[in-house]
Amino acid sequence: MIATGIQLAYLSSAALFVLALRALGQPTTARRGMQMAAFGMLVAVCATLVDQRIVSYEWLIVGLVAGGVIGYPLGMWVPMTAMPQRIAFSHAFGALAATLVGVGEYMHGFHEGTLTYGKTVALGFEVFFGALTVTGSLMAFGKLQELLPGAPITFRGQNVFNLSLFAIGVICLVWLVVSPYDTAFFVAILAIGLAVGVLMVLPIGGADMPVVVSLLNSYAGLAAVATGFALDNNILIVVGALDGASGFILSMAMSKAMNRSFANVLFGAFGAEAGGPEATQAGASGEMVGIDADDAALRLAFARRVIIVPGYGLAVAQAQHQVRELADLLEKRDVDVRFAIHPVAGRMPGHMNVLLAEAGVSYDKLFDMEDINERFSDADVALVIGANDVVNPAARTNRSSPIYGMPILNVQDAKSVIVLKRGRGKGFSGVENDLFVSPKTNMLFGDAKQSITQLCVEVKQA
Ligand code: NAP
């Protein structure tokens, strides 16, 4: 009776997770999607807590308290701009849990003499993917948090070495299945998994870390599926599969938005050139021309069409509320205001959508790159706020640029361009930007929040 109840609860949480993923695909329903997913997780956790295989609740309570104490500050206080490293950190914990469960189950099966072939496959797989996700995620966290050098660390024959080590891990896994009580192979799988995680992330530059984090998310999902098979737990299998598939799709989508092949992200050591002298000095010959806030405000106030292009700097400045106020003020003056959203603006997919939604910018004002690119030529002003790489014409024109081929917003087609940034800092990829020295462009230097606040004051008086 209890067992049936648990399975029914698992079925309803699985349905909630699928519906949540669907709702997360649209900005208008994303919030509901998160609530559904959280409720689904609550149902799954409560159902698991009544499982009769639980021998003692003491350690569960310790785990719940420790998880709550660590998770609450992570969720509440880590800023949006640090979200990729926070996610990497969480993946490391999730994968550590899967790995420890795998080790525990193997030891239990070893002593009880219950290691079947099926169970050993699941445990070996779980420990291998779990271990590489732990170290891979910690490496990604270190690079994103700048605790480790962001530039790729490469050595001769690296890809062959890494793939060979991976292959040895797989051979050990096969061997363990043939001989489940040979613990040396189990330990080897664990050690090789930990080493592969480190080696896999070493040659990948900081600029590609969000793709790696999402791929590690996929690996953590695969480890969860294996845990589900090992523990005979259906919800872990379903959730792991959803996690594995969505992480993989997201990695592919990010690579596509940067016009990079998946293999190039994983094996291309992108960022080595970006940090190098040729890349940083290439292009951008000419002087940047500044503009005062009052002149910029006049240009905006008397424009007919303005396209606002938000980027990572908007998130750093936390200027989303000010930008909404500016858009409202311009609209009151009958200016047509739209926001152009590049798929990889910011530091994670949907970063700009989340930021602007938080400030209450209506969804129908947000336009994806493919929907707005044609409209730049009609815009009197393109107002670039803390965006750099996603508006860099070098992605189209400079074959030697590390971002060559990445689709960009057609900002340079607008009649005039005003760029808000603090100084001459480069974008995430570390390359110069010709847009800033174009005769059409004026630079309004300063922190985006302060600059937009000034623009609002001046527009009110215009
Ligand atoms: P970006 O290229 O990183 O440039 C951000 C700009 O914001 C900088 O040039 C900086 O210049 C300026 N800035 C920083 N703080 C500011 C502040 N307080 N006020 C005003 N300006 C400020 O940003 P992006 O154009 O959004 O491009 C995103 C990059 O991330 C791309 O290279 C993309 O490939 C990469 N990426 C994104 C994702 C994703 O999912 N979104 C995933 C992987 C990689 P100053 O220092 O001079 O102010």
From TrEMBL:
Membrane topology: Multi-pass membrane protein
Record-annotated NADP transhydrogenase beta-like domain positions: 7-456
UniProt key word Plastid: no
A Pfam match: PNTB
Top-level taxon of origin: Bacteria
Primary site of residence: membrane
SUPFAM superfamilies found in the cross-reference section: DHS-like NAD/FAD-binding domain
Keyword check for Iron: no
Protein name in UniProt: NAD(P) transhydrogenase subunit beta
Family: Belongs to the PNT beta subunit family.
EC number: 7.1.1.1
Originating species: Mesorhizobium marinum
Membrane-spanning ranges: 6-24, 36-54, 60-80, 87-108, 120-140, 160-178, 184-204, 211-229, 235-254
Keywords, alphabetical: Cell inner membrane, Cell membrane, Membrane, NAD, NADP, Translocase, Transmembrane, Transmembrane helix
